[in-house]
Amino acid sequence: MMENFHTHLPYCKHASGSAEDYIREAERLGFSALGFSDHSPAPAYMHDVQGYKMAEAQMPLYRDEVRKAAHLSSIPIYLGMEVDVIQEEASYLHEVIMPIMHPDFLIGSVHFIRLNAGRHIGLHEIETSQLFDRYMEQLLWGIEQSDFLFIGHPDRVMITDYVQKHDKQLRSAWRTIAQFAKKHRKPLEYNTSINAGMSPCVSPVLWEEILKEGVSIVVTSDAHAPERLGLGLSDGYEWLRTRQANIVYCSQLLAKKE
Ligand SMILES: [Zn+2]
Ligand SMILES: [Zn+2]
């Protein structure tokens, strides 16, 4: 069984393809379900993160494109969003996004660190232990939130040299993430667009801790183009299966919620 609940449309300004293109590709690949999860909008005052997010006014267009395309699909289609895990965005999520979107699911991901002055920096700018601590604070907060069906790419923080260099020394932090996810029964994502071609994966120590703890794992390709929908998925599933990972499927998690 294969499915993918992490896909992006051009509303976020850095993806391509239409909902229908993704559905045709999902059918071709033999998926049993497909979820859309484009980057959610952010409050206007967060001007430094707008560049990679959809505009607030585009939410109805995105929603309607997915819901309409779903009628032409032979497999179940789910409408979702990838939301930034930033405490200050939580009220915006509940007051602005949810009433318009009525999404089937949300992914919670950390792409930015919020600094005290209300400024945001990308994960690639985490170059000190203080900034890494701030990252951890946001991620752990995200794991606690019941809004998110799963947590996106907990290993994307490896894009920074600082974290890459300290993978081993950060073992206790990785263990905390794994134990926290287990405690809150929050699946973590094995993102094949990050881990594809990495041997065995981008953060061996983090994944050792996640697997040891038996955390639920969702596999996705984080596709930003229809032709990348299936990228690395079979390898990802296989890598996890040979390690007796606790793989879960979003369609089943959602069926249980109903
Ligand atoms: Zn993206
Ligand atoms: Zn992401």
UniProtKB/TrEMBL annotation:
Q: Which positions fall inside the PHP domain?
A: 5-193
Q: What is its EC number?
A: 3.1.3.15
Keyword check for Nuclease: no
Its UniProt entry gives the catalysed reaction(s) as: L-histidinol phosphate + H2O = L-histidinol + phosphate
Report a single Gene Ontology molecular function.
histidinol-phosphatase activity
Give yes or no: UniProt keyword Amino-acid biosynthesis.
yes
Keywords in alphabetical order = Amino-acid biosynthesis, Histidine biosynthesis, Hydrolase
Instruction: List the pathway annotation.
Output: Amino-acid biosynthesis; L-histidine biosynthesis; L-histidine from 5-phospho-alpha-D-ribose 1-diphosphate: step 8/9
Say which enzyme class the record assigns: hydrolase
The protein here is known as: Histidinol-phosphatase
